[in-house]
Amino acid sequence: MTQTKPKIGDYQSKLRPTWCPGCGNFVINQMMIKALVELEIPPHRTVITYDIGCNGNGADKIRAYSFKSLHGRSLPPAIGVKYANHDLTVLSVIGDGGLFWEGAAHWIATAQRNEDITVLVWDNQIYGLTTGQTSPTTQINYPTKTWPKGSADEPINPISVSLAAGASFVARGWVGKPNHLKDVIKQAIKHKGFALVDILQTCFTFNNLLPKYQDQTYIIDDNHDKTDKIKAYKIAEQTDKFGLGVFYQVSKPTIYHKYPILKSKTLINQTSTNQIDDLLAEFE
Amino acid sequence: MTNKDIVSIRIGGPAGSGVKSVGKLLQKSLQHAGFYSFGYLGYPSLIRGGYNFYQINLSQQPVDYSLSYADIFIPLNSLALEQIKKTGSKPRYIIADKTALPDDKRDLPDKSQVIKLNLTSQLKKLKITKISLNSALVGALFKFLNLPLEKLNQVIKKQFVKKGRAVIGQNLKAAALGFNSLDHKPLSLSLPTTKVKTLVMTGNTAIALGFIQGQGRFFSAYPMTPSTSILHYLASVTDNQSILVRQASTEIEAIGIAAGAAYAGVRTMVATSGGGLDLMSEFISLLGIAEIPLVIVDAQRTGPGTGLPTWQEQSDLNIARCAGHGEFPRVVMAPGDPAEAFHLIQEALNLADEYQIPVIFLTDKYLGESLFSLDKSTFDHRSKIKRGKILNLINDKHHLFPRYQFDQDGISPRPLPGNVNGIHITTSDEHDVYGNSIESDPIRIKMQTKRLSKLGSLAKNLPPAKAYGNLKAKTLVVGWGSTKKVIQAVVDRLNLAGLHLSYLYPLNHAVLKSILNPYQQIILVENNSTGQLETDLKLAGVKNIKTLLKFDGEPFFADELLEKIKLLI
Description:
The complex is a heterodimer of chains A (284) and B (569).
Chain A: H1 8-11, H2 24-38, E1 46-50, E2 65-68, H3 75-84, E3 89-95, H4 96-102, H5 104-112, E4 118-123, H6 158-165, E5 169-174, H7 178-190, E6 195-200, H8 210-216, E7 217-219, H9 229-236, E8 242-249, H10 261-264, H11 277-280
Parallel strand pairs in A: 1-2, 1-3, 3-4, 4-6, 5-6, 7-8
Antiparallel strand pairs in A: 5-8
Helix pairs in contact in A: 2-7, 4-5, 5-6
Chain B: E1 7-15, H1 19-32, E2 36-42, E3 49-59, E4 72-75, H2 78-86, E5 93-97, E6 113-117, H3 119-125, H4 133-144, H5 149-159, H6 165-180, E7 198-202, H7 203-213, E8 218-221, H8 228-236, E9 244-247, H9 251-263, E10 268-272, H10 274-290, E11 294-300, H11 317-322, E12 331-333, H12 338-355, E13 358-364, H13 365-369, E14 371-375, E15 390-391, E16 414-415, E17 425-427, H14 442-461, E18 467-469, E19 475-480, H15 484-494, E20 497-501, E21 503-505, H16 509-516, E22 521-526, H17 534-539, E23 545-549, H18 558-568
Parallel strand pairs in B: 1-4, 4-5, 5-6, 8-9, 8-10, 10-11, 11-13, 12-13, 15-16, 19-20, 19-22, 22-23
Antiparallel strand pairs in B: 1-3, 2-3, 2-14, 7-14, 12-21, 18-20
């Protein structure tokens, strides 16, 4: 099939984003597009599922087969699309509240089973769209509408939990380093199996983390052994600084390894007709 | 039903003791000997211990309903006898190994004739494994019914083929031992002479086969009794069919994955029970607004809450009609027997695709797990596959394709992901024709009206129910779902008219009224405690309804329903 290489414009929506000025979402949206274009994946071969929240308001701000799901439920439809047609590129966009709380069961199960999707967490450490409640990644003692005197809860560590759940690709990006973020997204898309990128961003309206990230982020050394899980944990558990890049990447079997029919053809392109005649003998 | 043509045999014992093995071997052997049979299983929610039973009704004529009594009782331990005494049931015969009988004769039910066998010790003497007692008991029963041992032997050879020659040999020896341990045959049955090729199968298996035949491609579920055997069966055939099966981590994930697969274009089904349907309801609502086709099987059981998780009820009709917030079209249907289940599930897949809606398919413990004899020709009923307005070829270039455009019939053409000219947005938000999210806007009203207009065409186009039996009778007996066969049996016996509703939502009230109102009396039979269909009948303007309810965890038994209806007519 001859196809012209996709251009940035092919992915661009005609609608104007509704995000606040300066929101990190603009950067993520653009870096997703750039990553897809650079990987030469055209919009009609791309399915992106979304969560509810500010990220979900981006579902129609990109031109692709977008599927805006329910809160916390971005991952299951993405898995289903991949099962039906694993030739498609499937990204699942979700917020910190959506993945680490409301949809946490999906997070763990999807990582454990190495479902072949790319999960991009738009992690601003706050519930933005619902006007500023504590999220699972909100820093301790940070005052929010639900913890006016500061949150009592220690935040969850998305990287460590993903590693523990069995994710085969775990990475972190930051909107303050857009090109690096784009490269991480590209690696995540290319990874066969479950890939999670925790994308640090700021919500200028409810949780401005820009100064913190400017001071405390660094790019993980090129020599880091990505197959060393213990080292990945060590970087993930640093509290005074935040490593950016791929923490961990290994190759693991996916569901396709158990389904020979999917080796040559996607489920939707199966041409053989299901036959019950042979199955009836068992009941005679 | 004190029908002399039917012999009912009940095997009872603790879970894990072989109740199911004895029952299955017996039912298979009877089938092989040419009988029709019906197997009803009762079991508690545990793996070992408790009290399980397997009741088989056999006849030369089709028999597809349960009875409240057993002519012959086969206890596998002494607790089983206590259970049958507790229920007040008085079997004519008790056939049992010595080890399953109480030491004190006074502990036996009076009026039952007890046939005591010495199988365990003889098996031991012959060095045959203890587990072969199952075959020995069936052997004894074959002699008791004056049936040829050879028929049983043939089934043993087939049933244990995977376990190897040695196991077959042991079981054949055990069967012969049981057969020869009796010298009398008080219930001499003659072998059926008509040769109809029958299959013995549960309703759940029929649903799974219908899904395969209907070219279903993806199935996901979280295990939940009594739906789980659909998952088991489909998972067991994936080597030879183009089907992908995924056990999900929750019911929410099961339907979420299914929604994605269906959106991407493959025929998809999920199965659960009432509690799982509750969990799925948010996604059902998404399917409604996003117009994604999906078949959702709800195998009902006794509720609310965990209820009686392994027992019978038909109490999810209300939730099936209402599950999911907001207002959106759907179909609710319920088959009455495995033959109908096989046929209807294919229709469900077609309706979901043609109307781009969720279809809720109600079955229950009784239909899903009972073993019915079916004529093999049942499976010749193969529906034409109708995928609706899936759009493969789009010639024009679109920035976004108007996926939700306003077509006359309210159903918009649907391109699938991957289509170069079909890019659109699918969303749980209210949206414009391209799928872009909207706020309060006149399009909202148009979009909601478009979706709901499908309900009108469904009510008009779904096949109406047809009364059967004596159409001149004063009384019409109405039921839905798994009460179909038991009602039919009673209606036949009493020369009444009957009506089985397969399609439960949306209902065409005018048609329903015109069918029902000519009868002086309507007897509505429902296996629940509130009469969930009654509300509909009343809304339709149906008069003179008497409702018979049962909600003790058991299905209606034919003899019981006969007596109850006799009192009303």
